TrEMBL record:
The keyword Glycoprotein does not apply. Residues 5-249 form the ABC transporter domain. It comes from the Bacteria. InterPro entries: AAA+_ATPase (IPR003593), ABC_transporter-like_ATP-bd (IPR003439), ABC_transpr_LolD-like (IPR015854), P-loop_NTPase (IPR027417). The keyword Nucleotide-binding applies. This is Phosphonate-transporting ATPase. The lineage of its organism: Bacteria, Bacillati, Bacillota, Bacilli, Lactobacillales. GO terms for molecular function: ATP binding; ATP hydrolysis activity; transmembrane transporter activity. GO terms for cellular component: plasma membrane.
Length: 249
């Protein structure tokens, strides 16, 4: 099978404390269609830097990134956002606070098209948005609520829906449930898993939660000091226990 995303020899060097430091230190990774990869690693291991390199938010010092065989290493963030979407840890990122839930969903649905919101377009899509949110206790009946008035959990659910409403080629989840209370976090994680499996999305999910890391996904990688030090396939991951993972931290 051909990889969807291929990262070859990715190095990111920063100048810190009077010396060069490789915060990504020769990462090689092939992500295949429908992979749901959990990414673990200690603080500072390079997880966010890796996601930034994939989205184009941060350029590599050397190495290359290919999506469907096309070299995207030098494509900017805006161009890559047509096919790569990301949900952040911070509920304030990713949604426009002065817009309603429905308006945010419409913007996400029209990603890549001119950023104009027409009332008619909003009305045309209202039924679809109702359908999308109807089984979600956090967002049901909230379509006309201004996003700034939503709770953190509601905003994260909205950010997630915005990330998948236009099927992304690659979905990046950057500790997207970490800032939520345990119950809300679990609900969003269940929704995430359901959508990824139903829509057969390809996903890279960063988490610090070992229970989540064991339960979800078909592959698991561990980053340490900018290197991939463990890459487990489906069967190896299925046999994994939390105790096994602790030794990498
Ligand atoms: N622009 C920068 N300037 C200096 N140091 C940086 C910069 N960006 C990242 N770093 C450092 O690079 C290392 C990797 O950071 P990164 O945020 O990718 O880690 P992480 O694995 O996502 O950590 P966390 O789990 O804490 O979010 C850290 O030591 C960080 O301090």
């Amino acid at each position: 099978m051909k990889p969807l995303l291929e990262i070859n020899n990715a190095v990111k060097t920063i100048y810190n404390d009077n010396q060069d430091l490789n915060i990504l230190d020769g990462i090689n990774l092939k992500i295949y269609p429908k992979d749901f990869i959990v990414v673990l690693g200690t603080n500072g291991a390079g997880k966010s830097t890796l996601l930034d390199a994939i989205t184009g938010a941060n350029k590599l010092s050397s190495g290359d990134i290919k999506l469907n065989d096309e070299d995207i290493t030098h494509k900017n963030l805006a161009k890559r956002s047509h096919y790569i979407s990301r949900v952040y840890q911070d509920p304030k990122l990713g949604t426009s606070p002065r817009m309603t839930v429905a308006e945010n969903l419409l913007l996400a649905k029209r990603r890549g098209l001119p950023r104009r919101l027409r009332l008619r377009k909003l009305n045309d899509n209202m039924e679809k948005f109702k359908e999308l949110t109807k089984d979600l206790p956090t967002l049901d009946n909230r379509l006309n609520t201004f996003t700034e008035n939503l709770s953190g959990g509601q905003r994260q659910t909205l950010s997630f829906l915005m990330a998948i409403i236009q099927r992304p080629e690659l979905l990046l989840l950057d500790e997207h449930t970490a800032a939520l209370d345990p119950q809300t976090s679990q609900e969003l994680m269940e929704l995430t898993n359901k959508v990824i499996l139903e829509k057969e999305l390809t996903c890279l999910m960063v988490t610090h939660n070992l229970t989540e890391a064991i339960k979800y996904g078909n592959r698991l990688i561990v980053l340490k000091k900018g290197k991939v030090i463990l890459d487990l396939d489906k069967d190896q991951k299925a046999a994994l226990k939390e105790q096994d993972l602790l030794e990498y931290f």
